């Protein structure tokens, strides 16, 4: 009912008169309250059917907490979509340093092309991926060890009579006809290590395994071979080296063991070679008109993804998805709403221009405009403020007073240059103003320190007012984000080739405030 919130603003002055009602209205029109999102659990269940998800390596081994959370959740969803669509190629738009791309390729064996406009990011992704592979094999070995634990535990839990028999064997002298000569006698318990062994003990385990193999009689070899090989398969292929110990006089078993290990080593090298081709970081600026086939020579049926694609890149990702038949699905999480281009913001008549907002025909027909201030507000994190992570009031105050100085002293009301993160690098307000003026390429010599401090003193009593104003912006932030996200969803709903599209809350908004994904799948006839 529209009348419920009719008393939020004064009818004549249009000023806010009921803050409590304003907050209730903002909550009512937030995405979490409108009921338009599809739960992530429902999406995964529909995609997988009876199949269970893959339990893999935890990403917090090599990412910070925020990035780990994002990559873990999103990669699982992407893998489920790829399996559902029967595709193995993924294009990661705005891939940055390749956190998502490398994890998708290594954990889920997907062929990933990571495209970023920054050559610095692409080079960094190459280097990070190279280092990650070294550690990844250790994580994989650890995972294989866990999968083998039951078999090892079973070997350790032999019946007592087996132990007695082993003891008798160990006490019995070796047959003179045996081709294996050794003075050491061991039991099976010495051969099979504890199921809880770690990679630290790998070298000791391999050495002990070799000693055990050459001291057992021929009749025991066949009985133990399956268990011995199971242990060797648990270890990384290059962790077990062929010993040249004098204890082994090149017997048949040693030769067989060497051959098996050599084959395992060759397979491991082949595997490493193929793994190195699963992730390709590329540098290119993506627009709505981009031809992916010009960038990716072996483009095939694929899906397009983007984790926090900045500004217009999120909108262009959806446009490319709808236009290219080879792209069967999309999963896009946008960010940096303040960098969106708006068709009706400057009232310029550019019908051929492709804009970041609005996308859907409904808002185009309405001539809808948010404006930069509103889009800046949409980037704020209500959930973080709600749990006590307060806004940086002092830095906002510095920036507000700086703008007054720019207008009154320099006559500057608009600039293409940005101050950036000057506050964190400044020791005082004076230092902040001077560094900011240099960034803006303005002469600070005509502005004495006393004048700068006069401005600071003039407005410092209004800091509480500024804080209250920014809190109202935070409360309103989810409503503005709703408008931008629903615009993208409506754009997909307007397309004839889309089988399903929806908004899905992927992340914990305290860890990752831009937590909503726009997801869509093409119709089967488009496959």
From TrEMBL:
UniProt cross-references to Pfam families, sorted A to Z: Methyltransf_32
InterPro entries: Methyltranfer_dom, METTL25, SAM-dependent_MTases_sf
Domain Methyltransferase: from-to ranges: 66-343
GO molecular function: methyltransferase activity
SUPFAM superfamilies documented for this protein: S-adenosyl-L-methionine-dependent methyltransferases
The organism's place on the tree of life at top rank: Eukaryota
Protein known as: Methyltransferase-like protein 25
UniProt source species: Eudyptula minor
């Amino acid at each position: 009912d529209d009348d419920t919130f009719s008393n939020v603003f004064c009818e004549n002055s249009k000023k806010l008169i009921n803050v409590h009602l304003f907050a209730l209205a903002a909550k009512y029109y937030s995405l979490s309250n409108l009921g338009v999102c599809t739960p992530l659990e429902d999406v995964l269940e529909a995609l997988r059917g009876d199949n269970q998800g893959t339990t893999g390596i935890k990403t917090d081994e090599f990412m910070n907490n925020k990035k780990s959370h994002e990559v873990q959740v999103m990669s699982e969803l992407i893998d489920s979509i790829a399996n559902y669509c029967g595709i193995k190629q993924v294009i990661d738009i705005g891939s940055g340093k390749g956190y998502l791309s490398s994890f998708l390729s290594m954990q889920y064996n997907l062929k990933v092309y990571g495209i970023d406009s920054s050559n610095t990011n692409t080079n960094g992704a190459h280097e990070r991926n190279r280092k990650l592979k070294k550690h990844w094999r250790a994580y994989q070995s650890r995972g294989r060890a866990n999968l083998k634990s039951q078999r090892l535990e079973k070997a350790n839990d032999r019946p007592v009579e087996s132990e007695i028999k082993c003891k008798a064997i160990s006490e019995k002298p070796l047959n003179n006809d045996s081709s294996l000569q050794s003075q050491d006698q061991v039991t099976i318990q010495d051969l099979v290590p504890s199921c809880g062994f770690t990679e630290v003990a790998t070298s000791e385990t391999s050495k002990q395994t070799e000693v055990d193999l050459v001291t057992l009689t021929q009749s025991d070899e066949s009985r133990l071979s399956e268990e011995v090989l199971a242990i060797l398969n648990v270890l990384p292929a290059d962790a077990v080296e062929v010993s040249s110990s004098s204890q082994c006089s090149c017997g048949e078993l040693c030769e067989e063991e060497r051959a098996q290990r050599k084959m395992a080593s060759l397979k491991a090298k082949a595997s490493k070679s193929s793994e190195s081709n699963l992730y390709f970081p590329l540098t290119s600026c993506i627009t709505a008109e981009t031809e992916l086939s010009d960038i990716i020579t072996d483009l095939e049926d694929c899906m397009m993804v983007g984790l926090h694609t900045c500004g217009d890149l999120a909108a262009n990702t959806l446009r490319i998805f709808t236009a290219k038949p080879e792209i069967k699905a999309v999963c896009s999480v946008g960010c940096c709403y303040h960098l969106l281009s708006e068709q009706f913001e400057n009232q310029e008549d550019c019908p051929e221009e492709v804009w970041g907002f609005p996308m859907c025909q409904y808002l185009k027909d309405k001539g809808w405009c948010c404006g930069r201030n509103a889009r800046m507000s949409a980037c704020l994190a209500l959930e973080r403020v709600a749990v006590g992570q307060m806004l940086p009031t002092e830095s906002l105050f510095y920036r507000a007073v700086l703008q007054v100085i720019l207008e009154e002293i320099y006559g500057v009301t608009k600039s293409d240059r940005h101050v950036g993160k000057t506050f964190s690098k400044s020791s005082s307000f004076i230092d902040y103003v001077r560094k900011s003026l240099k960034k803006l390429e303005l002469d600070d010599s005509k502005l004495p320190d006393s004048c700068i401090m006069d401005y600071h003193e003039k407005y410092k009593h209004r800091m509480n007012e500024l804080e209250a104003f920014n809190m109202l912006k935070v409360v309103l932030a989810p409503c503005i984000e709703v408008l931008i996200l629903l615009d993208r969803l409506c754009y997909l709903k307007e397309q004839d080739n889309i089988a399903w599209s929806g908004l899905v809350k992927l992340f914990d908004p305290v860890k990752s405030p831009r937590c909503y994904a726009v997801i869509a799948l093409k119709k089967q006839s488009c496959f």
